[in-house]
Amino acid sequence: MSIMEYNGGAIIAMKGKGCVAIAADRRFGVQALTLGTDFQKVFPATDKIYFGLAGLATDVQTLSEKFRMKVDMYHLREEREITPKTFAHMVSSTLYEKRFGGYFCFPTIAGLDAKNEPYICNMDGIGCITTPNDFVVSGTAENQLYGMCEALWEPNLEPEDLFETISQALMNGVDRDAISGWGGIVHVITADGVITRTLKGRMD
Description:
About 30% of the residues lie in helices and about 30% in strands. It has helices at about 55-80, 85-95, 140-150, 160-175, and strands at about 10-15, 20-25, 30, 35, 40-45, 50-55, 105-110, 120-125, 130, 135-140, 185-190, 195-200.
């Protein structure tokens, strides 16, 4: 088993019309043993940027604190909010500087820029960025999530429709992966604020 599959997990980010959503499962486990069902994998960077971390649980916690510190330092130094694209490159360079003994995490980023245009991306363990126009997925359930997202996603979804689409994709994707699931959490980021909802899923 790969170290990336040791704790399991599933994360999706999707673009909508003037909004963006990011969702993750809530399972914390060691291989096939489930230890918790409320593990945080998605974190706020600013009011309009959220990032999810799929991979080894210890690195998820380490990197979430490191990124929080770097965003705070950027805010103090620049005296302005960081943009999603700048944040993505900051995450990428943080991973790349440890490339010879890297973090076992694949970050996913979702946010709105200054013009409230949606931005999503994800990257591998050394910070190679991918920025598609529809959705990104990562985690042990990514193959199943790709299939669900390709079937359900449509362009220019409104916030409520985007929530329904990402929720269905997450719930049905993790049902086909034994080491992710146990409920989910969805954040829909709009110009007016962030809507956060917790999903109940199969607990077996």
